[in-house]
Amino acid sequence: MGIDAGFDMVPRLSKGVVDRHNWDRFINFIKEHYKDDAQIEIKPNYIIFKAGEHPILPFEGHKFLRFSSKVSGPTAAATRVESYIDTVTRIAKVHFGSRVQYWNEGFDHFGNYDWNEVHESIRSYEQVRHAVVISPFLLLDKLGIPIFEIKDILGKGKGLVARFNISKGTRILVEKPLLTVRSMPPNELEPVLAARLKALSKASQRQFLSLRNNFPGKYPFSGIVKTNALPCGPGSPVGGVYPTACLINHSCIPNSHHSWNSNVEHETIHAVRPIEAGEEITISYDRGDPYIVRQAFLNEAFGFDCNCSGCSLPPSELQASNARRILIQGLDDTIGDPFRMMVSPKEVLGDCHSLLQVLEEEYGGCATASSARLYYDAFQVSITHGDQARASVFAERAYKARVVCEGEDSPETQRVKSLALKPSEHSSFGLCSTKWKTTREMVPKSLNTAQFEKWLFGEQS
Ligand SMILES: C[S@@+](CC[C@H](N)C(=O)[O-])C[C@H]1O[C@@H](n2cnc3c(N)ncnc32)[C@H](O)[C@@H]1O
């Protein structure tokens, strides 16, 4: 006989993401607290306290009902287990509040659960679970914790700053527009906006009106749109205004990419390179022009002078950057020429390879949207000449780049993904010629990386 004491979790925890997150934090706290205590052993599925009746905390919170032991007696072991129970109960209360119900039979205070139930729950701790790997960013998202904070940025007004280290390809933000509007002169736009605003909720009206206006005066609503709207797709005449996405400032070498998902009509922001905690999240407002051209554009269109890292390079480096940007635009134009694609496909593939290298030099692996476009161009060159082998590799690369900058659910990502699997389903399959005719199975398997790249870009057959 003896006196039992401990605590019960009432009601028991669910398998839901919030309870799981809280339980993991609690377990990590316990591990840290007892890390130097030789009586506490971490097993694959639980933590065991080797005192008294060896109470246990499982790693799966939804299985847990009770932490208890017999605590009676003047021995050192009884004192030790009593102290474990007291401390673990206090820590559990901090994490779960009134759900943690302490009981002690010595005071005629009994637990909530039947002992059969409790023993059954303890037996289930041993059953190995197949861990569901959940991205920490997805978890934060589900918990409604943004991975950025809104801060004042010197010389730029408000901006978004990473609260955690963010890995490449992470979806930083997804947001529906407050409103979308077609581009038109401010005197025509103003009444359209007034009517749209009137139809919005008071909260949305306040969000719209809280946005920055670099063009105050006769047309205040149009000024807000001009300062903030993001195009709904590349080159779209329709722009969307968002409460949070519109707080993201510009950089000529941005660490993030914004994209409009036309299927679900929302804007997404993805990291195109790793972003460190404390770093500002930036997107590009311009087309990647050389310094003078983009400064003029940013000043005229948005009313600011850019001092980003790309604009603050020493003169010789800025000159080299300008040369690269001119080359990028030139190659972009020639690659898009349908006549060249028809008569000189090999040269076009060569240009695609050169463009890839210049993009890498200029943007250091952050030009994912441009690479996605260029891989798609190379796909088109290959498929119009019947080359399914190269086309499938280019589509696969376009797909991977799209996943980084737009996510798996973007319509363009899905389109290039299906083309990677079935390149022949493209409407231009064999349209120019079938002189490069191959099947998907003919992608070479035994080449090293350098040889493979040479084969891919048509530098060796
Ligand atoms: C869409 S808003 C971005 C959020 C804005 N900073 C705010 O406080 O609401 C665009 C405006 O932010 C400012 N901005 C954006 N990027 C900037 C930069 N790189 N340098 C200086 N100002 C910038 C400019 O005033 C620009 O017109």
TrEMBL record:
Pfam families: SET
Annotated PROSITE patterns: SET
Domain SET: 146-286
SMART domains: SET
PANTHER family in UniProt: SET DOMAIN-CONTAINING PROTEIN 5
Protein name: SET domain-containing protein
